[in-house]
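TA notes, week 10

Several of you asked for a full example with nothing omitted. So below is the full record: structure tokens for the whole chain, then the designed sequence directly under it. When grading your own attempts, check the secondary structure regions first.
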């Protein structure tokens, strides 16, 4: 009798412990500077009345057209879905991108700090890869119809010619620039080489 009556308490305690053991939810933003004057802040885009939702809110042709890969020297063009061209994607925690890559073009090394990524090769073939936190490279040549997943936050690239690229746009042409000493050390290059690469990349 005593055991039976204490069971709910055991479950409650377990529940509480499991609850306490949960990690913090992922932050949807990089930082949150307190606005001490506003009494109301909305993170993201507000919702329309659900009664007004239509199929059109969940469909888009934004990715139907190829981007122009000749508009920049890196040879890639990213077309994105947004809440403007696909309102139904708001708060779903995902978005879609079409990446057009010229022959010998690349998507420079970068990381996506708040999302994992799936790449599906629709046409042609492409070398993709990422580096894990122990500096190990995982890469694969994808052919049409093949897919690859990139874990959240790790440095990744998509390339048709990875050996020809010396460094990423971000490292050399950020605004303001990453200090020369940092870039020189990271890439083991001279000041002249930093200047030359910046110039080549238009930075
Ligand atoms: C991507 O392609 C679009 C459409 O052709 C073009 O307007 C845009 O300038 C291109 N963006 C880049 C960064 O090359």
């Amino acid at each position: 009798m005593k055991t039976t009556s204490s069971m709910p308490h055991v479950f409650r305690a377990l529940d509480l412990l499991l609850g306490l053991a949960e990690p913090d939810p992922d932050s949807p933003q990089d930082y949150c500077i307190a606005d001490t004057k506003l009494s109301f802040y909305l993170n993201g885009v507000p919702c329309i009345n659900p009664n007004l939702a239509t199929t059109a809110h969940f469909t888009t042709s934004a990715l139907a057209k190829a981007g122009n890969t000749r508009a920049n020297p890196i040879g890639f063009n990213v077309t994105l879905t947004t809440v403007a061209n696909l309102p139904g994607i708001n708060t779903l925690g995902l978005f879609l991108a079409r990446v057009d890559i010229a022959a010998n073009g690349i998507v420079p090394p970068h990381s996506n700090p708040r999302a994992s990524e799936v790449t599906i090769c629709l046409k042609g073939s492409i070398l993709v890869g990422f580096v894990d936190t122990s500096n190990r490279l995982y890469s694969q040549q994808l052919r049409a119809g093949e897919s690859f997943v990139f874990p959240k936050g790790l440095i990744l690239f998509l390339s048709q010619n990875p050996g020809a690229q010396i460094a990423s746009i971000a490292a050399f042409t950020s605004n303001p620039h990453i200090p020369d000493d940092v870039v020189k050390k990271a890439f083991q290059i001279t000041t002249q080489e930093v200047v030359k690469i910046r110039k080549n990349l238009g930075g």
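Confidence is low (pLDDT under 50) at residues 1-6, 161-167. Use that as a sanity check on your answer.
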